[in-house]
Amino acid sequence: MKPKHKVLVYNFLGFAILFVFFRFGLSLVLQLDSFYMSLIAAISASFLAPKFAVVKKENVEKIVMKWIFIKGFKEL
């Protein structure tokens, strides 16, 4: 699998797992319309999810991750 495809899958999985967690967590805590709970979950998941990217170093494509809880970039 190409690194670009892996990055796409990692970004989706990071967002999807946090979205589902926040969506069901909010439904247990708040009594809002499902649209607003989904909107809040999507915004918070997109803010807290790790971001993956492909960087070309020395003619080699490498996957790096940036997350708000980790300082700098982490190479995978």
Describe it for me?
There is one protein chain. About 55% of the residues lie in helices and about 20% in strands. With about 80 residues, the protein is of the alpha+beta class. It has a three-stranded antiparallel β-sheet with strand order 1-2-3, covered by helices on one side. The longest helix has 27 residues.
Secondary structure elements and their pairing?
Elements: H1 3-29, H2 34-48, E1 51-57, E2 60-66, E3 73-75
Antiparallel strand pairs: 1-2, 2-3
Let me know the average pLDDT: 92
Shape: elongated
Biggest sheet details: 3 strands, antiparallel
Radius of gyration: 15 Å
**Helix- and strand-based class?**
alpha+beta
Question: How many helices does DSSP assign?
Answer: 2
Classify the beta-strand content into a percent band.
Answer: 15-25%
Strand order of the largest sheet: 1-2-3
Distance linking N and C termini: 15 Å
Given as residue ranges, the uncertain stretches (5+ residues, pLDDT < 50) are: none
Helix content: 55-70%
* Order of SSEs: HHEEE
> How many DSSP E strands?
3
Count structural domains: 1
